[in-house]
Amino acid sequence: MTKQNKNNGNKPCWVIKIGSALLTSDGRGLDEQAIADWVKQMAQLQNQGIRIVLVSSGAVAAGMQRLGWTKRPHALYQQQVAAAIGQMGLIQLYESAFQQYDLHTAQILLTHEDLSNRKRYLNARGTLREVLKLNVIPVINENDTVATDEIRFGDNDSLAAMVANLVEADRLVILTDQDGLFDRDPRKFSDATLIQQAKADSNELEAYAGDSGSLGRGGMLTKVRAAGRAARSGASTYIVNGHTENILLRLHKGETHGTLLVPAARRIAARKQWLAIHMQPCGDLLLDSGAVKVLRESGRSLLPVGVTAVNGNFARGDMVRCLDQDGREVARGLVNYSSLEAEKIIGYASDRIESILGYVDEAELIHRDNMVVF
């Protein structure tokens, strides 16, 4: 039975993204041996104290192989059919592979709307946090079966970057069939030079990126842009060749491989900046002196008991300001309860929330990880 680890939140977290070209051997069906090898490495990393989040492409490509299709269909409904068929085989393969190492997996399918909607964002974040606490490996993919052109991520590189923001990952590792980012397309120019390290926000990077392959929707350009997104919450991005032997373990040892794109700011500073500009405040919470002291000196979450008044009309997931008794802004963050719910529970201990509301989502009004203190 999987045991919950209460200290998991202090462990480093890697988001590992594997693309379609790697998973399917360029369209020849799922490469079970390659998948088994990556799973073995991820299991070893997990045992060495690294929390792993896997973002895996391959559902559409796997479905194409099962259906005997040689070209990715253009019609959205045909892509959705292929995804529905292929996702079954993909997740079964991961589940059986991880079980060889006594690790469970959790399938999580997302659309862009899930993370752009503030309430769904918090729901997804809460689910992922709990999955990781249980030492379970989340296997994430875009929900191609229900996605439409308007809400589709467009590529799993972007999805992986958003997941890295969501779980506050230390690293985003993008496994590809290329050796990294070059200053010119190495398939066309023999004198192309590998870019070993650069700032994720460098303007030159997009000019170096090439076009996508036939199977995936992504390419080097989407990987560069994903690195920029991941850097917003302080994650470094590695773009490496997934065929390199023991590549994940070698990165963990500190070996230099592929391209490393680093954030311009330190992780904590980047996370605070991302939260501060995430959205405009929709309301205010007035805090007593004890709550102000706890936030500023102890770095803890904001509990209902420390709030004396609620101003504004906000929903779960909205950004709100936290004010002291003189109206000065102490902090701001993403609130776990609506203004109507908050008005009912402020001043009470967290263990009273369920008896007052009839349910409980979180023990905190604002979790410290979703808060910027000034």
Write the layout of secondary structure elements.
Elements: E1 13-18, H1 20-23, H2 32-47, E2 51-56, H3 59-67, H4 76-99, E3 105-110, H5 112-116, H6 118-133, E4 137-142, H7 156-167, E5 171-176, E6 197-199, H8 205-208, H9 220-231, E7 236-241, H10 247-252, E8 259-262, H11 267-276, E9 283-287, H12 289-298, E10 307-312, E11 319-323, E12 329-334, H13 339-345, H14 353-357, E13 371-373
Parallel strand pairs: 1-2, 1-5, 2-4, 3-4, 5-7, 6-8, 9-11
Antiparallel strand pairs: 7-8, 9-10, 11-12, 12-13
How would you explain this protein's 3D organization?
With 374 residues, this protein is of the alpha/beta class. It has 2 domains: 8-272, 3-Layer(aba) Sandwich (Carbamate kinase), CATH 3.40.1160; 279-373, Roll (Archaeosine Trna-guanine Transglycosylase, Chain: A, domain 4). The chain is 37% helix and 18% strand. It has helices at 20-23, 32-47, 59-67, 76-99, 112-116, 118-133, 156-167, 205-208, 220-231, 247-252, 267-276, 289-298, 339-345, 353-357; strands at 13-18, 51-56, 105-110, 137-142, 171-176, 197-199, 236-241, 259-262, 283-287, 307-312, 319-323, 329-334, 371-373. An 8-stranded mixed β-sheet has the order 3-4-2-1-5-7-8-6, sandwiched between helices. It has a 5-stranded mixed β-sheet with strand order 10-9-11-12-13, with helices on both faces. Helix 2 packs across helix 4 (76-99). The radius of gyration is 22 Å and the shape is globular. The chain starts with 12 loop residues before the first strand and ends with a strand.
